[in-house]
Amino acid sequence: MANTISITDSPVPNPIPKSTIIRLENIFKIYGSGETEVRALSDVNLTIHEGEYCSIMGPSGSGKSTAMNIIGCLDRPTSGHYYLDNLDVAQMNDTNLAHIRNKKLGFVFQQFHLLPQLTALENVMLPMVYASVSPKERSDRATVALTRVGLANRLNNKPTQLSGGQQQRVAIARAIRQ
Question: Residue 1 pLDDT > 50, yes or no?
Fold first, then answer.
């Protein structure tokens, strides 16, 4: 018997129709085959509209990380459709998925994954290098993002010079840099 994840949408009703940002339709993710087959996700459906919050909860082994990896375009479903901004990304190739991750998604990892040799500003600017954003615009956007999270006075600090909470805010700034 497979464990299940529960997906909860924002409890606040929204009278104004918002655009659909994420839509999962009949998503399955199966690892292995035969006797070693593991159904990590089975017939998952989810719709998240602009401005909504969503949490994915469940016991260990229930498919939460698998669902997040698919939503984050880090993995593909075995079957089903995943629409991100109404674009079916479920079957895209690696190059197109990398472009989608760079342009449309921001990640805040549990361990933050900041590069220790870079300053807070440089850590936030780094994903924009891969997006071919000009150096001036990278710096401007990273400065704005760090200011938004209350770190305007820590732009030139390296991760080891920041508290855990400040490092987390650098990771958030990196995710919202756009």
Answer: no
